[in-house]
Design brief:
Elements (H helix, E strand, L loop, with lengths): L1 H11 L2 E7 L5 H11 L2 E7 L2 H10 L6 E2 L3 H10 L19 H7 L10 E12 L1 H7 L9 H4 L1 H7 L4 E4 L2 H11 L9 H14 L5 E3 L3 H6 L5 E5 H14 L6 E3 L5 E8 L8 H11 L2 H11 L14 H4 L8 H5 L1 E2 L6 H16 L3
Helix pairs in contact: 10-17
Length: about 350
Protein backbone atom coordinates (compact mmCIF):
# COMPACT_ATOMS: atom_id res chain seq x y z
CA UNK A 1 0.00 0.00 0.00
CA UNK A 2 2.85 2.37 0.84
CA UNK A 3 4.44 1.76 -2.57
CA UNK A 4 1.13 2.43 -4.32
CA UNK A 5 0.69 5.67 -2.40
CA UNK A 6 4.19 6.82 -3.30
CA UNK A 7 3.66 5.95 -6.96
CA UNK A 8 0.43 7.91 -7.05
CA UNK A 9 2.13 10.87 -5.39
CA UNK A 10 4.96 10.73 -7.94
CA UNK A 11 2.41 10.78 -10.75
CA UNK A 12 0.80 13.87 -9.26
CA UNK A 13 4.20 15.54 -9.03
CA UNK A 14 5.11 15.29 -12.75
CA UNK A 15 6.65 18.61 -13.72
CA UNK A 16 8.56 20.08 -16.65
CA UNK A 17 10.84 23.08 -16.23
CA UNK A 18 11.06 25.26 -19.33
CA UNK A 19 13.44 28.21 -19.91
CA UNK A 20 12.63 30.34 -22.95
CA UNK A 21 12.91 33.86 -24.32
CA UNK A 22 10.40 36.47 -23.13
CA UNK A 23 7.19 36.88 -25.17
CA UNK A 24 8.02 33.75 -27.16
CA UNK A 25 5.20 31.24 -26.67
CA UNK A 26 1.47 30.89 -27.14
CA UNK A 27 0.05 30.60 -23.60
CA UNK A 28 -2.73 28.41 -24.98
CA UNK A 29 -0.12 25.89 -26.12
CA UNK A 30 1.23 25.56 -22.58
CA UNK A 31 -2.23 25.10 -21.11
CA UNK A 32 -3.11 22.46 -23.70
CA UNK A 33 0.06 20.46 -23.05
CA UNK A 34 -0.55 20.49 -19.31
CA UNK A 35 -4.16 19.40 -19.82
CA UNK A 36 -3.33 16.62 -22.27
CA UNK A 37 -0.42 15.17 -20.30
CA UNK A 38 -1.08 16.05 -16.68
CA UNK A 39 2.41 17.55 -16.50
CA UNK A 40 2.79 20.77 -14.54
CA UNK A 41 4.80 23.34 -16.46
CA UNK A 42 7.18 25.68 -14.65
CA UNK A 43 7.93 28.33 -17.26
CA UNK A 44 10.78 30.82 -16.76
CA UNK A 45 12.07 33.44 -19.18
CA UNK A 46 15.33 35.17 -20.03
CA UNK A 47 16.21 38.12 -22.27
CA UNK A 48 19.80 37.38 -23.25
CA UNK A 49 21.86 34.41 -24.41
CA UNK A 50 24.51 35.33 -21.88
CA UNK A 51 22.02 34.68 -19.07
CA UNK A 52 21.03 31.32 -20.52
CA UNK A 53 24.62 30.19 -21.06
CA UNK A 54 25.67 31.16 -17.55
CA UNK A 55 22.96 28.98 -16.04
CA UNK A 56 23.64 25.95 -18.22
CA UNK A 57 27.43 26.05 -18.09
CA UNK A 58 27.31 26.25 -14.30
CA UNK A 59 25.30 23.02 -14.32
CA UNK A 60 22.36 21.76 -12.26
CA UNK A 61 20.06 24.44 -13.68
CA UNK A 62 17.03 22.22 -13.10
CA UNK A 63 15.67 23.00 -16.56
CA UNK A 64 14.34 20.34 -18.92
CA UNK A 65 13.82 22.46 -22.03
CA UNK A 66 15.91 25.44 -23.15
CA UNK A 67 15.83 27.49 -26.35
CA UNK A 68 19.33 28.71 -27.31
CA UNK A 69 20.08 30.43 -30.61
CA UNK A 70 22.02 28.28 -33.05
CA UNK A 71 25.10 30.51 -32.91
CA UNK A 72 26.94 31.04 -30.80
CA UNK A 73 25.11 29.60 -27.79
CA UNK A 74 23.68 26.34 -29.13
CA UNK A 75 26.95 25.21 -30.75
CA UNK A 76 28.96 26.33 -27.72
CA UNK A 77 26.71 24.43 -25.31
CA UNK A 78 27.02 21.32 -27.47
CA UNK A 79 30.82 21.54 -27.43
CA UNK A 80 30.76 21.98 -23.67
CA UNK A 81 28.66 18.83 -23.23
CA UNK A 82 25.84 20.87 -21.69
CA UNK A 83 23.11 19.53 -24.00
CA UNK A 84 21.82 15.98 -24.36
CA UNK A 85 21.54 14.21 -27.72
CA UNK A 86 17.93 13.77 -28.81
CA UNK A 87 16.70 10.39 -30.01
CA UNK A 88 14.73 11.33 -33.12
CA UNK A 89 12.73 8.10 -32.86
CA UNK A 90 11.34 9.38 -29.56
CA UNK A 91 10.08 12.52 -31.31
CA UNK A 92 7.83 11.28 -34.15
CA UNK A 93 6.90 14.82 -35.19
CA UNK A 94 10.55 15.48 -36.03
CA UNK A 95 9.53 14.50 -39.56
CA UNK A 96 7.45 17.70 -39.73
CA UNK A 97 10.56 19.91 -39.75
CA UNK A 98 11.72 21.60 -42.95
CA UNK A 99 14.82 19.64 -44.09
CA UNK A 100 16.33 22.69 -45.82
CA UNK A 101 16.12 24.80 -42.66
CA UNK A 102 17.40 21.98 -40.49
CA UNK A 103 20.36 21.70 -42.85
CA UNK A 104 21.13 25.37 -42.20
CA UNK A 105 21.53 24.70 -38.48
CA UNK A 106 23.50 21.50 -39.02
CA UNK A 107 26.68 23.59 -39.19
CA UNK A 108 26.15 24.27 -35.48
CA UNK A 109 24.85 20.79 -34.72
CA UNK A 110 26.17 18.11 -37.10
CA UNK A 111 23.48 15.56 -37.84
CA UNK A 112 20.93 17.71 -35.99
CA UNK A 113 21.69 15.55 -32.97
CA UNK A 114 20.90 18.04 -30.21
CA UNK A 115 17.98 20.21 -31.22
CA UNK A 116 14.98 21.04 -33.38
CA UNK A 117 14.22 24.48 -34.76
CA UNK A 118 11.58 26.23 -32.67
CA UNK A 119 11.31 29.63 -34.37
CA UNK A 120 13.63 31.81 -36.40
CA UNK A 121 14.04 35.44 -37.34
CA UNK A 122 16.40 38.13 -38.51
CA UNK A 123 18.11 41.11 -36.94
CA UNK A 124 17.35 44.38 -38.69
CA UNK A 125 15.77 47.77 -38.20
CA UNK A 126 12.48 48.63 -36.53
CA UNK A 127 11.35 52.01 -37.82
CA UNK A 128 8.54 54.54 -37.52
CA UNK A 129 8.62 55.86 -41.10
CA UNK A 130 6.58 59.02 -40.55
CA UNK A 131 8.78 60.32 -37.74
CA UNK A 132 11.95 59.44 -39.62
CA UNK A 133 10.81 61.17 -42.81
CA UNK A 134 9.91 64.28 -40.82
CA UNK A 135 13.45 64.55 -39.44
CA UNK A 136 15.49 63.06 -42.29
CA UNK A 137 13.40 63.25 -45.48
CA UNK A 138 16.28 62.22 -47.72
CA UNK A 139 17.38 59.19 -45.64
CA UNK A 140 17.16 55.77 -47.29
CA UNK A 141 14.96 53.60 -45.09
CA UNK A 142 16.05 50.17 -46.30
CA UNK A 143 19.75 50.50 -45.53
CA UNK A 144 21.99 50.13 -42.49
CA UNK A 145 23.09 53.68 -43.37
CA UNK A 146 19.94 54.86 -41.63
CA UNK A 147 21.54 53.92 -38.33
CA UNK A 148 25.26 53.57 -38.94
CA UNK A 149 25.85 56.89 -40.72
CA UNK A 150 26.44 59.55 -38.03
CA UNK A 151 24.63 62.26 -39.99
CA UNK A 152 21.46 60.15 -40.00
CA UNK A 153 21.75 59.07 -36.36
CA UNK A 154 22.28 62.70 -35.33
CA UNK A 155 19.09 63.84 -37.07
CA UNK A 156 17.05 60.98 -35.59
CA UNK A 157 18.35 61.20 -32.02
CA UNK A 158 15.48 63.43 -30.93
CA UNK A 159 12.85 60.82 -31.78
CA UNK A 160 14.76 58.03 -30.04
CA UNK A 161 17.27 55.39 -31.16
CA UNK A 162 17.58 52.07 -29.34
CA UNK A 163 20.11 49.30 -29.96
CA UNK A 164 20.00 45.68 -28.85
CA UNK A 165 22.25 45.12 -25.85
CA UNK A 166 23.74 42.13 -27.63
CA UNK A 167 27.24 42.05 -29.02
CA UNK A 168 26.31 38.69 -30.54
CA UNK A 169 23.87 40.45 -32.87
CA UNK A 170 25.33 43.92 -33.30
CA UNK A 171 29.00 43.22 -34.04
CA UNK A 172 28.38 40.71 -36.89
CA UNK A 173 25.83 43.13 -38.36
CA UNK A 174 28.37 45.94 -38.47
CA UNK A 175 31.08 43.65 -39.83
CA UNK A 176 28.75 42.61 -42.65
CA UNK A 177 27.83 46.26 -43.30
CA UNK A 178 31.54 47.03 -43.68
CA UNK A 179 31.98 44.22 -46.19
CA UNK A 180 33.83 42.00 -43.70
CA UNK A 181 33.13 38.45 -42.65
CA UNK A 182 30.64 38.49 -39.75
CA UNK A 183 32.91 35.92 -38.09
CA UNK A 184 36.07 37.99 -38.52
CA UNK A 185 38.62 37.79 -35.71
CA UNK A 186 40.96 40.36 -37.29
CA UNK A 187 41.79 43.11 -34.76
CA UNK A 188 41.67 45.69 -37.55
CA UNK A 189 38.14 44.66 -38.48
CA UNK A 190 37.07 44.88 -34.85
CA UNK A 191 38.60 48.35 -34.61
CA UNK A 192 36.61 49.39 -37.69
CA UNK A 193 33.40 48.16 -36.04
CA UNK A 194 34.21 50.11 -32.91
CA UNK A 195 34.78 53.23 -34.96
CA UNK A 196 31.35 52.91 -36.63
CA UNK A 197 29.61 52.39 -33.29
CA UNK A 198 31.50 55.14 -31.44
CA UNK A 199 30.54 57.67 -34.12
CA UNK A 200 26.85 57.04 -33.51
CA UNK A 201 27.14 56.35 -29.76
CA UNK A 202 26.18 59.94 -28.73
CA UNK A 203 22.84 59.52 -30.49
CA UNK A 204 21.81 56.15 -29.02
CA UNK A 205 19.28 56.61 -26.25
CA UNK A 206 19.88 53.22 -24.66
CA UNK A 207 20.99 49.64 -25.16
CA UNK A 208 18.06 47.36 -24.43
CA UNK A 209 17.76 43.68 -23.60
CA UNK A 210 14.02 44.11 -23.25
CA UNK A 211 11.35 46.76 -23.62
CA UNK A 212 12.12 47.85 -27.18
CA UNK A 213 8.92 46.25 -28.42
CA UNK A 214 6.85 48.37 -26.05
CA UNK A 215 8.84 51.54 -26.79
CA UNK A 216 8.31 51.18 -30.55
CA UNK A 217 4.61 50.42 -30.15
CA UNK A 218 4.13 53.46 -27.91
CA UNK A 219 5.99 55.80 -30.25
CA UNK A 220 8.73 56.46 -27.70
CA UNK A 221 11.46 55.60 -30.21
CA UNK A 222 11.57 55.80 -34.00
CA UNK A 223 14.56 53.59 -34.82
CA UNK A 224 15.73 50.35 -33.25
CA UNK A 225 18.20 47.63 -34.10
CA UNK A 226 16.05 44.69 -33.05
CA UNK A 227 14.70 41.24 -33.88
CA UNK A 228 12.16 40.88 -36.68
CA UNK A 229 9.48 39.23 -34.57
CA UNK A 230 9.72 41.83 -31.81
CA UNK A 231 9.22 44.59 -34.36
CA UNK A 232 6.30 42.70 -35.91
CA UNK A 233 4.70 42.46 -32.45
CA UNK A 234 5.31 46.17 -31.92
CA UNK A 235 3.64 46.95 -35.25
CA UNK A 236 0.59 44.91 -34.27
CA UNK A 237 0.31 46.58 -30.87
CA UNK A 238 0.67 50.03 -32.41
CA UNK A 239 -2.09 49.28 -34.91
CA UNK A 240 -4.37 47.94 -32.17
CA UNK A 241 -3.87 51.11 -30.10
CA UNK A 242 -5.17 53.37 -32.92
CA UNK A 243 -2.84 56.21 -31.96
CA UNK A 244 -1.57 56.93 -35.45
CA UNK A 245 1.74 55.12 -34.91
CA UNK A 246 3.05 52.98 -37.75
CA UNK A 247 5.91 50.53 -37.13
CA UNK A 248 7.75 48.59 -39.81
CA UNK A 249 10.56 46.06 -39.88
CA UNK A 250 13.28 46.54 -42.47
CA UNK A 251 15.74 43.94 -43.70
CA UNK A 252 18.57 46.25 -44.82
CA UNK A 253 19.42 45.83 -48.49
CA UNK A 254 23.05 45.14 -47.57
CA UNK A 255 21.93 41.98 -45.79
CA UNK A 256 21.08 40.97 -42.24
CA UNK A 257 21.69 38.17 -39.79
CA UNK A 258 19.28 35.24 -39.50
CA UNK A 259 19.15 33.19 -36.33
CA UNK A 260 17.41 29.96 -35.40
CA UNK A 261 16.23 29.26 -31.86
CA UNK A 262 16.53 25.60 -30.98
CA UNK A 263 14.51 23.32 -28.74
CA UNK A 264 17.14 21.55 -26.66
CA UNK A 265 17.45 19.44 -23.51
CA UNK A 266 20.16 20.12 -20.91
CA UNK A 267 22.48 17.18 -20.30
CA UNK A 268 21.40 17.04 -16.65
CA UNK A 269 17.67 17.60 -17.28
CA UNK A 270 15.73 15.92 -14.45
CA UNK A 271 12.68 15.04 -16.58
CA UNK A 272 14.08 14.00 -19.95
CA UNK A 273 11.18 11.75 -21.02
CA UNK A 274 8.63 14.51 -20.59
CA UNK A 275 11.02 16.94 -22.30
CA UNK A 276 10.93 14.71 -25.38
CA UNK A 277 7.13 14.64 -25.19
CA UNK A 278 7.07 18.44 -25.01
CA UNK A 279 9.27 18.83 -28.10
CA UNK A 280 7.11 16.33 -29.97
CA UNK A 281 4.01 18.24 -28.91
CA UNK A 282 5.39 21.59 -30.06
CA UNK A 283 6.28 20.22 -33.49
CA UNK A 284 2.62 19.52 -34.30
CA UNK A 285 1.55 21.82 -37.16
CA UNK A 286 -1.45 23.27 -35.34
CA UNK A 287 0.60 24.01 -32.21
CA UNK A 288 3.36 25.72 -34.19
CA UNK A 289 0.79 27.69 -36.15
CA UNK A 290 -0.71 28.99 -32.92
CA UNK A 291 2.73 30.03 -31.68
CA UNK A 292 3.58 31.88 -34.91
CA UNK A 293 0.16 33.57 -34.89
CA UNK A 294 0.84 34.76 -31.34
CA UNK A 295 4.49 35.82 -31.36
CA UNK A 296 4.90 36.67 -35.08
CA UNK A 297 8.05 34.66 -35.64
CA UNK A 298 8.13 32.04 -38.42
CA UNK A 299 8.52 28.36 -37.62
CA UNK A 300 10.16 25.46 -39.42
CA UNK A 301 7.09 23.24 -39.80
CA UNK A 302 5.79 23.79 -43.37
CA UNK A 303 2.49 22.02 -42.68
CA UNK A 304 1.65 24.77 -40.17
CA UNK A 305 1.30 27.37 -42.93
CA UNK A 306 -2.26 26.35 -43.76
CA UNK A 307 -3.25 27.46 -40.24
CA UNK A 308 -1.19 30.66 -40.06
CA UNK A 309 -2.96 33.95 -40.57
CA UNK A 310 -2.67 35.14 -44.19
CA UNK A 311 -1.52 38.61 -43.13
CA UNK A 312 1.46 37.05 -41.36
CA UNK A 313 2.35 34.75 -44.24
CA UNK A 314 2.38 37.73 -46.59
CA UNK A 315 4.34 39.98 -44.20
CA UNK A 316 8.05 39.92 -45.14
CA UNK A 317 8.88 40.99 -41.58
CA UNK A 318 7.53 37.63 -40.45
CA UNK A 319 8.17 35.33 -43.41
CA UNK A 320 11.05 36.71 -45.49
CA UNK A 321 10.68 36.53 -49.25
CA UNK A 322 13.00 34.13 -51.09
CA UNK A 323 14.99 37.18 -52.24
CA UNK A 324 15.37 38.40 -48.65
CA UNK A 325 16.33 34.92 -47.46
CA UNK A 326 19.16 34.96 -49.98
CA UNK A 327 20.54 38.08 -48.28
CA UNK A 328 20.27 36.75 -44.73
CA UNK A 329 23.57 35.48 -43.39
CA UNK A 330 24.35 33.13 -40.50
CA UNK A 331 27.17 33.60 -38.07
CA UNK A 332 29.61 30.94 -36.96
CA UNK A 333 31.66 30.37 -33.82
CA UNK A 334 34.68 32.54 -33.04
CA UNK A 335 37.64 31.61 -30.81
CA UNK A 336 37.49 32.45 -27.12
CA UNK A 337 40.18 35.12 -27.43
CA UNK A 338 38.16 36.86 -30.15
CA UNK A 339 35.01 36.65 -28.04
CA UNK A 340 36.81 38.33 -25.17
CA UNK A 341 38.04 41.10 -27.46
CA UNK A 342 34.49 41.63 -28.71
CA UNK A 343 33.16 41.74 -25.15
CA UNK A 344 35.71 44.36 -24.12
CA UNK A 345 34.94 46.45 -27.18
CA UNK A 346 31.20 46.21 -26.58
CA UNK A 347 31.67 47.41 -23.00
CA UNK A 348 33.61 50.43 -24.29
CA UNK A 349 30.89 51.25 -26.80
CA UNK A 350 28.14 51.08 -24.20
CA UNK A 351 30.18 53.25 -21.84
CA UNK A 352 30.94 55.66 -24.68
CA UNK A 353 34.66 55.67 -23.95
CA UNK A 354 37.60 54.28 -25.90
Amino acid sequence: MLFIARAAHAQEERVLNVYNWTDYIDPAALKRFAKETGVKLNYDVYDSLETLEAKLLTGHSGYDIVVPSDEPSFSRLIRAGALAPIDHASVPNWRNLDPALMQRVARADPGNAHGAIYLFGSTGLGIEPDKIRALAPDAVLDSWDLLFKPENARRLASCGIVMLDSEIDVIPSVLHYLGKSPDSTDPGDLAAVEQVLMRIRPYIRNFASGGTLEALAAGEVCLALDYSGDVAQAAARAAEAHRGITVRFVVPKEGAQIGFDMLAIPADAPHRDDALKFINYLLQPDVMAGITNTVRYPNAVPASRAMIRPDLLSDPAVYPTPEAMAHLFQIGPVPLAAERARTRMWARVKAGSQ
